[in-house]
Every structure is written in structure tokens, then in C-alpha cells.
Amino acid sequence: MKNIRTIAITSGKGGVGKTNLAANLAVALQQLGEKVLIFDADLGLSNVDVLLGLVTPFNIQHVLNGKKNLREVIVEGPQGIKILPASSGIQEITQLDEFQRLKLLEEFETFQGEIDTLIIDTGAGISHNVAFFCISAQTIIVVISPEPTALTDGYALIKVLFTQYQEKDFKILVNSVQDASEGLKVFKRLAVATEKYLQVSLDYLGFISKDDSIPKAVRAQKSFLDIYPESVASKNILSLAAKLKEDAISPLKGSLQLFLGNMIGEANDVRL
Question: Considering the entire predicted model, what is its pTM?
């Protein structure tokens, strides 16, 4: 069975640009030849579709209640990326009954041959739902920014995932920095704390520059990589995507079937 890269993009707090980076990373990977699906897993506050200005008449709830199949719900975004939208007020997957979980697994299994990478845009914070998606994915990317609260909350998220779920592998993406030097400086502040108090070594994925094209794209409800391809931020995100694409896919956590199996198996076990 084909191994599919599964990436959870998460953050300790809101407002650090997590969803915007998830969407643009998907576009960047698509440009590099990957077939990408974004799963909007911020199940109570759907926003990937809003960020990209997409009309989504259906969402994952229609799949779970049997009214639609996955193909009917998934919408196409910039440069051909696929998006599975959530909806406001949706029931958390960790609270779904056995029939609904099996329905989700069945739908994904019929679709998985059409994608190479699944990006899970989690909610922010340290809720059981965030942990639940992170521990099921092959790669965990924690988005932070230079703000002290972003560092503190990022550390708190890593601490929960390490101490309660024994996760040890984290990639750190530093958003909204002036240059490469500041990005590395912010990363080192977090890395020193995690190594000292948690004995966890972090992997520096890279940085995204503070760039006027980003808020402009948000206001236009477009991907900044799509409408400002020559911007500094676009070059940054393409560099990160290339780095991720080069990473080997782990046979232990890489397939979509195993990801969904982990989700179902962990659904009653994730408690914070």
C-alpha cells in the first residue's frame, strides 16, 4: 500500500499564522509535484476555506452522517490542492461513535490513492483534540513566533505531547521574523528550554519572513504563494516544502490508513 506523508501543523496559541502557513505549504508542495489534501481539523472553527475564499456547501459532517461521500465534500483550492472542510460547531472526532469513525476510515481508504501528502491543520492550544491529531501524524510541525507568549505556549504543547504521549520528534517553524538570524535566535530560545527541562531535541525546519504580501493575501482571501510568487515569504515557504519533500516517509507512521487507524484507536484514550 502506498505510503502517504501525514503532517500535523499545530501551535500552542492562536494568532501565529498556523492555518495560513498550512495552506501555503500545501500549495508549495503541490508546486513541487505532490498531490496534497488539507484536512481542516480545527473542527469547531473551520477557517481554511475562508482563508482561501472557497465556497464549501458541504463539510466533514455530511460525510459522517452519510449524506455525502468524501469526493462530494472535498473542494479544490489554488493550484489544485484539495481541502476537506470542517464546520463551525462540529462534534469533535474524539467524541464520534464507532460507526462514524469507521465511516471516516472507509471514505479515506477509497480516496488515498489520489494523494501523496495529507496536511492536518489542527486547532491551537493543548486540548485533547490537538494532541489526538498530532500523535496520529507522521510529522509534527509546531509553529511559533517571536512573541514571548507564542514561545511559552509552544513549549507547553511540546511538554504535553512528550510527557503524556511520549512524542519526541518535533519540527519547529518560526513565523513572522525579520530575517534568518532572528528565526534561528527564536528557535534556539525554545530549543534550550526543551532540551534542559524535557530532554527533547527539536528540529529546526526554518522560518517565514515578516512580509507585507502575507496580510495582503489574507485580505484578498488568496494564498500568498499563489498571488505573490516572487515575495520573500513565498521563497521561504518553497524552501520549507522542498526540505519536507526530501524527508523519508516513515513506514511506521506514514500511511494514511495507519494515520486513520491511530485516530480511531486513540479516540477514547486521549485525555488531557
Answer: 0.89
